[in-house]
Design a protein that fits this description.
CATH class: Alpha Beta
Distance between the termini: 11 Å
Strand content: 5-15%
Number of domains: 1
CATH superfamily: Glycoside hydrolase/deacetylase
Largest sheet: 5 strands, parallel
Number of strands: 10
Helix content: 40-55%
CATH architecture: Alpha-Beta Barrel
Radius of gyration: 18 Å
């Protein structure tokens, strides 16, 4: 690609998603992530001279989250779809279910912010042919669900196995080892989502760093020692496109934001005070932005099309 860009993206998984992920009963503010955590993400982007891409869940947008997204859109932020109901089994659902879910998410976001979403991120990073077919039928430009990190999935499988051994009904799953071995730069997928092909849709993989393909997530950057963080950033020097993945949970202050105590123990990044987390993130992201432009994912997808036309 002729463009060198960094996309700062955030998934708006809420309290109910984390309760399902960890298999614990929990009730909390369904829009908690749209309040202080989203404001912290926007402020972090501002401090870096960037605009971000927010992947919103349609259900929460309809429930009031849209009013909190609209001011960001007016400032140049992008709002993409993170499905309507964040069903962790979405990649195993049939055509009518998938099409209806994505169509509802698209409609909810367009109604709330005045612009139809151009991009999509799947629950749990799990894709299927049916999901990609629905995205193309509904006129999406890109997907950004691929995380090409075998180490991430190995850790995820270990955690899921431990939860299930304890008898918990957890809300996450696994598709194929191919998930961790896909290209690390933008590509057009084939009928099979984890292979190159000739779809109209563009896939924007979430960035991985070092030869070990460590995921470039906010949690990973926060938890890594300072030397490892610098090494991660240096390893990306040759990458033209870097898609950084936040979750709103990464920016929660567990006390001030009144996160249910049942969830705090399962999020190791929350043991670091919020100001220190933000400082670590700001320092790492500033290194990425030294010779790259901050962009939304939609802008990167358009640049990919332009450079390959």
């Amino acid at each position: 690609m002729s463009v060198r860009g960094v996309a700062l993206t955030i998934d708006m998984d809420g309290v109910s998603e984390y309760a399902r992920l960890h298999g614990v009963p929990c009730i909390g503010d369904p829009l908690l992530m749209y309040r202080a955590p989203l404001a912290r993400f926007a402020a972090l982007c501002d401090s870096l001279g960037a605009v971000g891409t927010v992947y919103a869940i349609g259900r929460d947008v309809e429930a009031g989250g849209g009013a909190l997204l609209r001011p960001l859109v007016e400032r140049g932020f992008e709002v993409g779809a993170h499905s309507f109901a964040h069903d962790y089994a979405m990649a195993d659902r049939d055509v009518p279910f998938v099409y209806d879910d994505i169509a509802r998410a698209r409609r909810a976001i367009e109604t709330a912010v005045g612009r139809a979403p151009r991009g999509f991120r799947a629950p749990g990073y799990l894709l299927s042919t049916t999901i990609l077919d629905a995205l193309e039928a509904l006129d999406f430009d890109y997907d950004s669900s691929v995380l090409p990190s075998p180490s991430y999935y190995a850790l995820k499988l270990a955690v899921l196995a431990s939860y299930r051994a304890m008898g918990r009904n957890v809300g996450s799953s696994w598709k194929t080892p191919r998930m961790g071995l896909v290209p690390t730069q933008p590509y057009r997928p084939s009928i099979k989502p984890y292979e190159r092909g000739s779809r109209n849709l563009i896939e924007l993989p979430i960035a991985v760093s070092t030869a070990a393909r460590l995921p470039l997530t906010a949690a990973a950057m926060v938890l890594a020692p300072s030397g490892v963080r610098r090494f991660m950033m240096r390893s990306l020097a040759s990458r033209d496109v870097v898609v950084v993945n936040f979750h709103a949970m990464d920016l929660v202050d567990p006390t001030a934001d009144e996160l249910p105590a049942e969830l705090v123990r399962y999020q190791p990044e929350l043991r670091i005070v919020i100001d220190e987390r933000l400082e670590r993130l700001r320092g790492s992201l500033a290194l990425l932005l030294r010779d790259r432009a901050p962009m939304t994912c939609a802008t990167i997808a358009r640049a990919f099309v332009d450079s390959h036309s």
